[in-house]
Amino acid sequence: MSLIRPFAGLRPAPGRAADVAAPPYDVLNSSEARERAKGRPWSFLHISKPEIDLPEGTDPYDASVYAKGKENFDKMLAEGVLVQDDQPCYYLYRLIMGEHQQIGLVAAASVPDYDSNRIRKHEFTRPDKEDDRVRQVDTLNAQTGPVFLTYKHDATIDALVERITATAPEVDITADDGVQHAIWPVCDEADIATITDTFDAMPAIYIADGHHRSAAASRVAAMRKAANPNHTGEEPYNYFLSVVFPDNQMMILDYNRVVTDLNGLDEAAFMAKVKENFSVSEADAPVKPAANCEFGMYLGGKWYKLTVNDDRVPADDPVDQLDVSLLANNLIDPILGISDPRRDKRIDFVGGIRGLKELERRVDSGEMAVAFSLFPTRMDQLMSVADANEVMPPKSTWFEPKLADGLVSHMLD
């Protein structure tokens, strides 16, 4: 089996991409999705968040939700809003957000290579979220939410991408958040062979975002393999929908922290404890860290710059060297008493796309007592953790821009 392969994509009919494209299922809650889909009968939110078409308050994991998604999906197929290509292709996918541009490859990625860790992971998954994606994929008989992968950039792929994207894209739309999405089908046999062979020579590629979707694909493949006495390994369910981007184009934003209280300490006692492991200086403006081991802290209406002491930075542990780990291990756990950030309700996480003003707002409102701004995790750090077969702390990476759902889907038969 190949690491990636082309497939006959299910895509919006010509002229319908803007009607269909929607934010990823996991970046909107049900009420936000309901609002975004108003007046848009063909929005992919009707498939990815089908509870919006059921009474408010419907449990998004109720069986009726998956059935409604299937009904909406079948309607879009029957009405010709979504049409499957008649031959296997790769697809180049360009995202432009402000001054940032990145171009990835839409491909079907190998489930066996995911299972063997050639497609490498860096996060734990939650069983309930896996179960949700398994039910969604199995009910639709399609993968509609792409997994966001990355690879160490390659000159051969760079040259092919540059040549093809010099032509006009087949799809070019701007979403309501201002992000541009463009698609180029790559159906030439020689180009397909070049892409497939180049990726086959790579020792590994990496999951950036989409651990639950890839884990669900693995589970669906295992279920269908067990139920298929004529299984060959070439069936579509042995692959999962992905968009793979070169590492040197990826943009990771900071993923910041806010905490509800100071764990019983007053500000002076809290600050004294912080100074045991960090150098601290008051700042005249919001602190956006410029390098690893630097942090901003907003407390009592003031910003502070924190720099972790050198002796607190481990020399050879790819997980404990991460800024999210340095903050957790030297402040959030020992001082604020939060040892399990996955479950502790006293801590929340704020994506860097929301800016430092959001941290100030959360604290000034009285909702939170203290906020921390972080330097973004680097791509080489992510890869080092994955290569070591380790996992990152929760909320270590915030990738922008986000892929759209609905532009290319992968049918499982």
How is this fold's topology laid out?
Blueprint: E1 4-5, E2 10-12, H1 17-20, H2 30-36, H3 45-48, H4 63-78, E3 82-84, E4 90-97, E5 100-110, H5 111-115, E6 119-120, H6 127-140, E7 142-143, E8 147-151, H7 155-164, E9 171-174, E10 180-186, H8 189-200, E11 205-209, H9 211-227, E12 239-246, E13 252-253, E14 255-259, H10 267-277, E15 278-283, E16 294-299, E17 302-308, H11 323-332, E18 347-351, H12 356-364, E19 370-374, H13 379-387, E20 398-399, E21 410-411
Parallel strand pairs: 6-11, 8-12
Antiparallel strand pairs: 1-5, 2-3, 4-5, 4-10, 5-12, 7-21, 8-11, 9-10, 13-20, 14-18, 14-19, 15-17, 16-17, 16-19
Please give a structural write-up:
The protein is of the alpha+beta class and 413 residues long. It has 2 domains: 4-251 and 400-411, no CATH class; 255-375, Conserved hypothetical protein from pyrococcus furiosus pfu- 392566-001, domain 2 (2-Layer Sandwich), CATH 3.30.1760. It is 31% helix and 24% strand. It has helices at 17-20, 30-36, 45-48, 63-78, 111-115, 127-140, 155-164, 189-200, 211-227, 267-277, 323-332, 356-364, 379-387, and strands spanning 4-5, 10-12, 82-84, 90-97, 100-110, 119-120, 142-143, 147-151, 171-174, 180-186, 205-209, 239-246, 252-253, 255-259, 278-283, 294-299, 302-308, 347-351, 370-374, 398-399, 410-411. Strands 1, 4, 5, 6, 8, 9, 10, 11 and 12 form a 9-stranded mixed β-sheet that branches. A 6-stranded antiparallel β-sheet has the order 15-17-16-19-14-18, with helices on both faces. A two-stranded antiparallel sheet has the order 2-3. Strand 16 and strand 17 form a beta hairpin. Helix 4 (63-78) packs parallel to helix 6 (127-140).
